[in-house]
Every structure is written in structure tokens, then in C-alpha cells.
Design brief:
Elements: H1 9-28, E1 44-46, H2 47-52, H3 61-71, H4 73-84, H5 91-103, H6 109-119, H7 124-140, E2 149-152, E3 160-163, E4 169-173, H8 202-214, H9 224-241, H10 247-251, H11 255-263, H12 265-274, H13 283-290, H14 307-322, H15 328-333, H16 337-344
């Protein structure tokens, strides 16, 4: 005797959706790194401390300059030429300029240097975050060499740059990370830039800069889609390397900006699709969606900046959630943005 089962479409649909929710929940919690991973050794050279410890009232500037050249011969050349804009060999000019650089009150250097000493007296938290981030990065890329990091004061000229042999060293202008409320920033940056000018932002800035050098843009196309997915992949990896950092901090958003982006994600995506912006290569379009600014002009003046990168991050996240056999290395080396988008089944 054959048995006939009654097909209950509603019950089946609910069962299917429940399984999919469980699948997504499990997949989104993928573990990429072992729990017992030990932090990488991070070397931070305190050129800032050496420079700011100079007291030109008690130590002749000539003696101080000679000492800096002896202790930091390579970085002093970079500091002189790239930051101060003088010939490295022109020690006479350096001797003359140093007291003003340390004690100036017109441009706020004296007050800023004092604040640097206070804010960066203890950098244990930065070393800890960088140590774990680079350990995770080396777990994925075993041949990756952790860069030497130099802290310096830039006179409001630079936040971060690479230097040295093969440009494998990182210099961080700590005077650009004194807090969004530091009064002298009003003279040198726009208001929207202040959000990431905090000590807490240094690990994310350093690691993201290293990631963009390690993982080059590999697509032969330069449409908005390729740029969004490329930057989104890097942001996704950065969030995994710094899991203790809130997502809005990884993105360089305020909490309010992040909440706006999440709340309006579907509308933003629909606008991008409807306007066919994904396939555009025009510089103004790419700049609007990808570059920093007060807002994303292609969307609205209420929208936070870099929404293209935000959407790209969500696409990369969706792709890795659905494709559990794909390794992080595979995601980073995949240059076909169209494939990533299609296999992500991204539907906000």
C-alpha cells in the first residue's frame, strides 16, 4: 500500500527559511584564526619622543641636531626633506629651524607637542592591537614581514606614509591623532576629517595602509563595481584582523553615520543599480562613491562619505558567508568583481 503525504507549502517554506537563517548565522561566524595565536613582534621607533625631549633652553640646538642625525640617520633625512622641506645636508638651517619647530606659538606647535607627549606617553594599547593584527595577517600570508613603524611629529604635514628601502617602513605623524577636539586642527583640516584624527584610529590606519600595499588592485577593468569590491574586500579583511574594533571605526564613520548606512543600505544599493553607476568609469562618479568627503554626492547630502566602499564591504561579507570553502587568500586574489557580486547573492 502506498502512502500519500500532503504537501504543506507554507510549512515547507517556513522550514526552508529557518534552515537558511541557521546557515547564515553559522556561516557569518566563520573562524579564520586559531585562538592561541601569539602577537607578532611590533617595533615602534619613538622619534617623536627623542625630538620632543629636546630642551633648547638647556641644550644647544647644534648639539641636539647632531645627536638626532647620529641616532636616526635614515629617518632624519626623510624628516628634513619630506616634512621640513629642506636639504638633509643643510644642518645649519636645521639648527636654526629646530627651536621654532619645537617652541612656536603662532601655529600651535608648542601646545601640540606638549599634547603629543601626554597622549602618547603610553602606547601599550597600540602595540597590542598591531601585534595581534599583524599576527593574523601573517597567519594568512606567512611570508609577510611586519614593517618597522616610526612615530614622529609632522607639524600638521602628514598622517602616515611609507619610506625606507623598498618603502617597507611606516611613519606615523602622531600630531595628527590628538583627538577630534584639538583646537589647532581647525586651521589645517575640514571638520569631516577630524573623526579619524584620534589615537584609537592608528592601528586601523596602519594596517589598512599595509593591506592596500600588500593586495594590489588586480582587475583589468576600472568601473565603479571593480573599485567598490576591491576596497570592500580590504575593509572586510581589516575588520577580521582587528575584531575588537567596532565596524564604524573600521570604516572611519561615526556611530550615526554607520547607523545611517545600515538603515539605508537597500535604498543606496537600489539607487546605484537604477542609475547604472556600477558600470561607470567616470572620475567624478568614482570620486563621489569612494573618496573621503562630507557626504556621498551621488546619493544625498545626508549620506556619509565612501558609501561605495561600505557597499563593497557588505558584498564581500555576503560572498564569504555563502561560499564557506573560499579562503581569505582566495577572496583577496580574486580579481573578477562581477563573479564576487553574482556569487554573493547580495540583496540588502
Amino acid at each position: 500500500m502506498s502512502l500519500k503525504f500532503r504537501y504543506n507549502h507554507a510549512l515547507y517554506t517556513m522550514h526552508y527559511l529557518l534552515l537558511m537563517c541557521l546557515f547564515v548565522a553559522c556561516s557569518s561566524g566563520r573562524r579564520y584564526f586559531p585562538d592561541n595565536l601569539q602577537p607578532a613582534e611590533v617595533s615602534i621607533v619613538r622619534f617623536d619622543s627623542a625630538l620632543l625631549s629636546i630642551d633648547t633652553q638647556t641644550e644647544p640646538a647644534a648639539v641636539a641636531v647632531c645627536r638626532l642625525y647620529e641616532e636616526y640617520p635614515d629617518f632624519m633625512r626623510v624628516f628634513a626633506e619630506d616634512i621640513l622641506g629642506i636639504e638633509a645636508a643643510d644642518t645649519a638651517f636645521m639648527i636654526e629651524a629646530l627651536p621654532n619647530y619645537l617652541n612656536d606659538t603662532v601655529y600651535g606647535f608648542a601646545a601640540t607637542n606638549s599634547r603629543v607627549r601626554a597622549v602618547f606617553a603610553d602606547i601599550t594599547d597600540i602595540c597590542r592591537a598591531l601585534g595581534m593584527a599583524f599576527a593574523r595577517l601573517q597567519y594568512i600570508y606567512p611570508d609577510y614581514t611586519v614593517p618597522e613603524i616610526t612615530f614622529f611629529v609632522s607639524g600638521f604635514n602628514a598622517s602616515l606614509f611609507f619610506w625606507g628601502d623598498m618603502s617597507q617602513k611606516v611613519a606615523v605623524g602622531v600630531d595628527m591623532y590628538l583627538g577630534a577636539d584639538w583646537e589647532y586642527y581647525n586651521r589645517v583640516v575640514w571638520n569631516y576629517q577630524k573623526q579619524t584624527m584620534r589615537k584609537e584610529c592608528i592601528p586601523a590606519d596602519v594596517v589598512s595602509a599595509c593591506l592596500f600595499r600588500l593586495i594590489p588592485f588586480s582587475s583589468s577593468k576600472s568601473r565603479l563595481l571593480e573599485n567598490m569590491v576591491y576596497r570592500g574586500k580590504v575593509m572586510y579583511l581589516l575588520s577580521l584582523l582587528l575584531p575588537e574594533e567596532p565596524q564604524h571605526e573600521i570604516m572611519g564613520y561615526t556611530k550615526e553615520q554607520w547607523q545611517w548606512a545600515v538603515k539605508n543600505e537597500r535604498n543606496v544599493w537600489n539607487m546605484i543599480v537604477d542609475k547604472r553607476d556600477l558600470w561607470k568609469t567616470e572620475s567624478p562618479v568614482l570620486t563621489s562613491y569612494l573618496n573621503d568627503g562630507p557626504f556621498t554626492t551621488e546619493i544625498s547630502q545626508e549620506a556619509p562619505p565612501r558609501l561605495g566602499t561600505f557597499i563593497g564591504w557588505r558584498i564581500a561579507e555576503s560572498y564569504m558567508t555563502r561560499n564557506t570553502g573560499v579562503r581569505l587568500q582566495d577572496l583577496m586574489s580574486e580579481g573578477d568583481a562581477q563573479k564576487i557580486l553574482e556569487e554573493s547573492a547580495y540583496r540588502p
